[in-house]
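Appendix B. One record, verbatim.
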Amino acid sequence: MTTRASSPEATETAHHRVLIVGGGTGGICVAVRLARKLGHGAVAILEPSDKHYYQPLWTLVGAGVVRKEKTERDEAGLIPAGVEWIRDRAAEVDPARDRVTTESGRVLGYDYLVLAPGMQIDWDRIAGLPEALGHDGVCSIYDYEQAERTWEMIRAFEGGNAVFTMPGTPIKCAGAPQKIMYLAEETFRARGVRGRTKVMGRFAGGAIFGVQPFRDALEGVLVRQGIDFRPFHELREVRPATREAVFEIVGGDRRGEQVVLKYDLLHAVPPMSAPDFVKRSPLAVDDPCGFIDVDKHTTQSPRFPNVFALGDASSLPTSRTGAAIRRQAPVLVDNLLAVMDGRYPPESYDGYAACPLVTSRKTVMLAEFGYDGKLMPSFPLDPRKERYSYWLLKRYGLPLYYWRGMMKGRA
């Protein structure tokens, strides 16, 4: 789709006290809190989608535990009362002129801007992947429809090489690529095909997990499940005609070497980045992912003090999870209100994120941590131990908490 950028002389079609770009988790969490503080008509959300998804459950959709429809709600039912919903997509953000231009050509002015557009999934950065996805043994849980297709492929798998990948860019829920690997391996055993199956994890990072105590525990899971895990493998190309996955070694002594693996099942996780309109803006950090540059504690832009950002597209150096947004949203709102009142931002985000690491259909390891890998457990239990109680939390508790708590501003 061709985007439409405004000229410097373009006239505003509307002006908002607070404009929020993005109606996903971050946008709704901020909007409901701001609406309560600022009242009717002060806040607008720019969001094109009719549907809102609880994406953390897509791993369980891909494992046949949850139907995909259970992860979906109508966006209209989540827009807070008194908040205007602008059903359009951002095409350009111009913080020097305090305005956002939409794909339809509208020019939206603002006094304060909150950016929560989410991440862009760059399927086409892996040659051959967009064409192969959903057939030829290639699947991914990082799409509403493809998550269900992933389960169809896993349950129909009759043996061979099952390859699971993870890119080198930050991604939504960095634990998901290994969760689906563990759940698939469990399914292969249950179906009696594990003996003729080689399960291979090929991740671009240097370890199975970035926080040391959980890394050690997860390496034990890899051994227990007999998974052949290799770090520093970045998926570059998918060749569906020959069922080959082409990797580049991106670390260690073999850096730059190409490795070709035959696959019978390939779960591919694509690279991700900030949306293109963010990358083109003066708000982006200077790197290929182009995330929104904000102070890691206040969520405020260092160059444009009336601009704030949270969630997956922000530069906040923590895991991109809903739990992280739950902690970021109240900090952002309090700091934004302070700036509106002429005060310095008083609140500080500590980098908290949580990742329920599903290791089977009955066990979860609950990884909670903050900046610099600091452990931040919510329960007085060893967080490295896999527990059925955490499975119940992941499967039932957290979705309920999301829809009835976070989306309503109660948590």
